[in-house]
Amino acid sequence: MTEVRTTRGEGEERIVDILVSPESHRDQQQDSVGTEESSKSLGTGRSLLPDAVSPTKCQIWAVMLLLGRLSVVILIGLAVQHKNDMDQVLLTLKNLTEQRDALLCQEDCPNTWDKFRCKCYRISTEWLSWNESREFCVSQGADLLVVDNKEEMDFISKATLYHDFCLGATDEAGEGMWRWVDGTVLPLDDPSWSRGGPVGGEDQNCLVRVSDPNQFKWADESCEEQNRGVCEQNVQK
């Protein structure tokens, strides 16, 4: 039994007796116990669920490695494509430059000189040493031939089909350091070497074109060897 005291109005006091039966009290205890057990059961049920599977370090590194390799492949592909595009641009630019030069180079070459694109060429009629050939070219306002490209090589080769002649390259300034007379380097692995590269020693320091009706090749030879020389000069624009 529970006693509750309440007041209603001023000075009025009422006592209300609330009777609680033993059965009701027992039911409330059972409900409370059932609720606690249910809560425990729910908690136990949650704990029995499997945890989320986390990736291992090995799996993470494998994914990172795969992504890294994929990035490298993509970069290589872009670089190759870029190189191909650049090669095409350079080739187009070269062709346009040659066309421009052909239009600008309207001047004719002097008598006894042959014209090819924007250059004039003269082959000496005398057989001279390499240094004498160069002196002759310089006296004509020119210099010994510096080969710039295959087309020029083919043109000179046809004009001097059966003769050796001096070219404008030497390694006299430093053994094995071949340079054209304009200062540019002549690579030792250039495919135009007739024997795969220079083979002479300190006594073969000058470049000559060797006789070969089928291809244009050059070789190192003694600078005292007597040959004809090919002079070149630019066309006046």
TrEMBL record:
SUPFAM superfamilies: C-type lectin-like
Membrane-crossing residue ranges in chain numbering: 60-80
GO cellular component terms attached to this protein's record: plasma membrane
SMART domains, alphabetized: CLECT
Keyword Flavoprotein carried by entry: no
Classification via Pfam families: Lectin_C (PF00059)
Localization: Cell membrane
Positions with biased composition (Basic and acidic residues): 1-16
Domain C-type lectin: 116-232
Listed Gene3D superfamilies: Mannose-Binding Protein A, subunit A
Region called Disordered, residue ranges: 1-46
Topology within the bilayer: Single-pass type II membrane protein
PROSITE patterns the record matches: C_TYPE_LECTIN_2
Keywords: Coiled coil, Membrane, Transmembrane, Transmembrane helix
Coiled coil: 79-106
Keyword Cytoplasm: no
Compositional bias ranges of the Polar residues kind: 30-44
Designated name of the protein: C-type lectin domain-containing protein
